[in-house]
Amino acid sequence: MSPKKSQITIAVVGDVHNQWDERDELTLQHLGIDLVLFVGDFGNEAVEVVRKIAAVKTPKAAIAGNHDAWYSASSWGRQKAPYDQSTEDRVQQQLDLLGDAHVGFSQLDFADYELSVVGSRPFSWGGSTWRNSQFYRDRYNVKSFAQSAEQIVTMAQNCSFEDIIIIGHNGPHGLGSKTESICGRDWKPDGGDYGDPDLTQAIADIRNIGKSIPLVTFGHMHHALKHPSGKRRTIVEFKDDTVYLNAACVPRVIKGDGNIKRNFSLVSFEGGVVREISLVWVNSDFTIESEEILYCEQ
Question: pLDDT digits over 195-218, tens only?
Fold first, then answer.
């Protein structure tokens, strides 16, 4: 049995959007990553991309995003599906490939690190309107935000460890309503809080059962803003002894001048505490070209 590690490095991979290949896994190895968390949007039901992510050997957990049910969650999407949905279920193919690593409405224990990972509602579009009701009813028998929150809390109760990292595709409601807020609506100039209310309720209820939540991490709301142009001012916020990390730096891979750069959000975690978080861009030779410190424990 390998000794338990007191300090680990966690890589959070923001919205992939088809940008993942074997060099990404090699980068994880060169960075010495202990645990990698994928926060969804692998592609538009991109089964082959998910197949590559499912093959990652580094200990991992993942949650599906809204693009991962792009043609299946809504009547609008089903009308645009480029394949025959009567004979093929690409959402289920992705879930089957990921297996236990998919923690949407589920959880995983990582005994070597004495922590658990709980997933929030998978395939989230965000916002305070319960949408895609048929999809959630048929696949999860979940019919409301309240039932969704209950499912997330049940998974937390099943965890073997007191320290829980929550991953979602979208973050919780209540972290700001400006366009530049961590889950702020930026496609309308007047902004708005586009966080998930069920995740907010679940976080409160999980705390009430005595669990510690040092980190909640997610993507969906891209760092680059639409209105106004620019970037989200707050990538990491600290609230109620929890660090909230939006890892959706999109595109996560940039090619140019004979070089390919890939971004990862790196979390230094020790003793149930987030010590530091940085956003790094890694070159083709696996060296870190740039590093932005997003959070440092006071």
Answer: 999 999 999 999 999 999 999 999
| β 107-110/259-270 pair status | unpaired
Q: Is the dihedral of CA 244, 62, 169, 26 positive or negative?
A: positive
CB 281 within 8 A of CB 26: no
Q: What radius of gyration, in Å, describes the C-alpha atoms of the chain?
A: 18
Q: Write the single-letter amino acid at 34.
A: D
DSSP character for 274?
Answer: E
Structure token pair of residue 122? 């998978």
The model's pTM: 0.97
Task: Give per-residue pLDDT as tens, 84-117.
Answer: 999 999 999 999 999 999 999 999 999 999 999 9
DSSP classification of residue 208: H
Q: From CA 93, how far away is CA 263, in angstroms rounded?
A: 27
Q: Which amino acid appears at position 128 of this protein?
A: S
